[in-house]
């Protein structure tokens, strides 16, 4: 479509690229392998929180949680904040009109809104009626003025914001008094639930200076059941306490303490009884493998990206041969070994396993098809088994970060797979610090692998991975009219049934281009004290922080 103002879309994409690559660098380069091979456990669910009824949760107590690093800013929608630990740390202090379920669907959260519904199709309009009891931390009501200011900030180039792509399509926010507003979109957009509620009060979006720098050392105003009461960099702790102005169901916990440390330090603290839960990563899995582990599908997934912009991979037959030759099952098995749980294949470019509309399509390695495709493109095996066309060898460069990372192991396995059909792959170690700046962003590779992240509403952001060809997140060197139209068709379907069908058709078109091969879902694994309930890893679901806590102990009746 032709936008009336193309600026916000371009600016938003560039900002998203910056934040995404910051997060990807961590995912690709710090995932060190375990020293010992851990046992592989059960298949991953969408959530593993040990749910119990609220009346089974003890009143009071402090939940002590481990986290990997201090965020550079506590602004959860700043480019420096989105890919950091800020959203995780602030989750108990935040709420929205939309509550996401395990399968990525949503419902209205009555603590924040009485109604969220589509009221017009032309122009596409969503009406939100707010809960009038809802207030920010200081006691100021959450109003339509906050939403107007928030959308303005998401679309202003002076604000280093990292909004979902759907914000580019917000035409206006029309207040209807203080506690209702209508959001008018330029077109119907399947991701619209991501753009219906203000993350920050207008006091934090009133100026670019406040938005960009004002939350570097302090948390934004809470609208959730907890508030940040202390940030102590010296001791590496962040403390949350009950919000005295919280209007909803009272939280069972008295407080939450986040402790910052590297994986080994957090593992030692958990084993010493100083933490109630901590992330389990390959680097500390050996120490925590015998503990009470909870695991789920995460939002992260690994992939093989194929640069079809130049060289032999510009030919679709060669790209399809690469895809057909890769043993995805082998790569998934390796990911399971590294993480200590039986992970699953990411068999869709659009949907995570278990997400609404997902259909399981187990990968099938097709060596004969790969060889046939190469012959079709004019490649023939030489005396050493490497495919040649004239004097040209079918040789591909595969740079990887120079660390003991999951990316390096995936590259090794893929190189071995492709050698079986005569494709020579040179795996090149690259300095971790320069991997994205010098290799990925300038497309200085034939093959690459790292980690992408999914969200419940991210069709618009996924589109950037494939089109346009100069999208800051498109590292495939390719784009096509067909894939652009397929994304637009899926994004334009706001009804559940037609959208599911459009997404399946989109998946087929994206696979036919053979630019990105999804590999494995990255599992989210935590060591959690057995008494902790209503808490644990989830793929999409929002945790109910008012119900999290410790399972109540059974009272003795005084008899044996």
The average pLDDT score comes to: 91
Question: Distance between the terminal alpha carbons, to the nearest Å?
Answer: 75 Å
Q: So what's the CATH class of the largest domain? A: Alpha Beta
Count of helices? 15
Helix coverage percent: 25-40%
Residue runs with pLDDT of under 50 for 5 or more positions: 1-33, 35-42
Tell me the number of strands.
Answer: 22
Quick summary of this structure?
This protein has 560 residues and is α+β, with helices and mostly antiparallel strands.
Structure description:
The chain is an alpha+beta fold. The chain has 2 domains: 284 residues, 3-Layer(aba) Sandwich (D-Maltodextrin-Binding Protein, domain 2); 228 residues, Dipeptide-binding Protein, domain 3. Helices cover 27% and strands 21% of the residues. Strands 11, 12, 18, 19 and 20 form a 5-stranded antiparallel β-sheet that branches. Strand 6 and strand 7 form a beta hairpin. The N terminus is likely disordered.
